Amino acid sequence: xxxxxxxxxxxxxxxxMSVMESELWFTVEDLAASVRFFTSHLRxxxxxxxxxxxxxxxxDAAVDIVLxxxxxxxxxxxxxxxxxxxxxxxxxxxxxxxxxxxxxDAPITxxxxxxxxxxxxxxxxDPNGIVVQLVEWVPPAGF
Length: 143
Description:
It is a single chain. The protein is of the alpha/beta class and 143 residues long. The protein has a single domain (22-71, 83-137), classed as 2,3-Dihydroxybiphenyl 1,2-Dioxygenase, domain 1. The protein is built from 2 helices and 8 strands; from the N terminus they run E-H-E-E-E-E-H-E-E-E.
């Protein structure tokens, strides 16, 4: 979430801009459903709510997520052929997290799997189609 900081003394790399923080904005059809998904399964919590939006944060290094209710006057997004969105979080303890998510009956769309190069990953999909990928790097033996 944007938090203003004093401008004095800031410099970007090679005299250019510096990225201070990041947040992802998603316009969704069902705001409450996405808020429930991110708070119950991914342990975000509401930091700020307003007319038609909710800002979700975590206490770790995760990027903030702002969910905005789609305006009623806008036509709905077409279901077929719309570009997909995947948010990827690099995590620790992915095996235990997978077990917790299964016990919660979370909407896991790609079960936990290991790639030959040592990356473990699983994917969930929120009720509005936002794909969340959890990844942990565990180098294979002898790597």
